[in-house]
Every structure is written in C-alpha cells, then in structure tokens.
Amino acid sequence: MLFATIGQGAIFLWMTAAGAVIGAVTLAFDALRCILQAGKILSAALDFAAGAVASAVLIAALIIGNYGRVRFYELFAAALGLALFRFAAASPAHAAMKKLAALLKVAGKRLNSYKVIKYLLK
Fold first, then answer.
1. What b/e string do you get for 90-120 counting C-beta neighbours within 10 Å, with b at 16 or more?
2. What's the burial of 74, exposed, middle or buried (CB within 10 Å: 0-12/13-18/19+)?
3. How far is CA 57 from the centre of its chain?
4. In the chain, what is the greatest distance between 2 CA atoms, to the nearest angstrom?
5. pLDDT tens-digit profile of 22-74?
6. pLDDT averaged over the chain?
7. 67: alpha, beta or left, given left = phi > 0 and alpha = psi -120 to 50?
8. Does the predicted model carry a pTM greater than 0.90?
9. Which of 2, 3, 38, 18 has its CA nearest to residue 81?
10. Neighbouring C-beta atoms of residue 34, cutoff 10 Å
C-alpha cells in the first residue's frame, strides 16, 4: 500500500491543534510588541523570535504526530488551525486582554492614591 490511511484523522486533529497553538504564540508576541512599544529593531527581533517559536512548535508537532514525515494534509491542517484561531479565537482573546488592561489600569490608579505607595515609588 502506497499511503497508510489509518490514523490520518487523529494526525489531522493534532496538526490543527498545533496550528492553533502557533496562532496563540503569534498573538502573544503581538501583545508583547504592543506592551513594549517596540521600535523597528525590537520589532524585528520579536518577529524573528515568534517565527522561531512557531517553527519549533510545527516541527515538534510533526515529529510527535507522524514521526517527522511531512505530508500535505498535515501542513494544510496546521494552516487551518492557525486560520481558525485567528478568525474565531483571536477577537475574544483580544477583547479579554483589553478588559484585563483596563482592570490593571484602574488598580494602578487606586494603588497610586495611597500615600504609602507614593512614598515607596519615589
């Protein structure tokens, strides 16, 4: 038999999950870029680091999922997982990050109103 078809469904789901993890990694690096207010050089370094982490995740998923054999459907599944994450989960995650940032800002203002904190942070 030319291709083994047993287990391809599980590998497809595994690679779809790996694509979603890659989406989460890239979203985390985008958030880090915004937090650090990165310039050109730091932005390029963060892009390189995001690419390296995403590559490591993809290679690890290929090795764990199918012993390192690369087939088109595996790469398609990873791309599908990335697209699903970007279109379905990135907006709620971004909204949750905005809510968290607003809560932290309110907490920071409240802490800043205490004289002890002002004295310690001088």
1. beebeeeeeeeeeeeeeeeeeeeeeeeeeee
2. buried
3. 11
4. 77
5. 999 998 888 888 777 778 888 888 899 999 999 999 999 999 988 888 889 99
6. 84
7. left
8. no
9. 18
10. 11
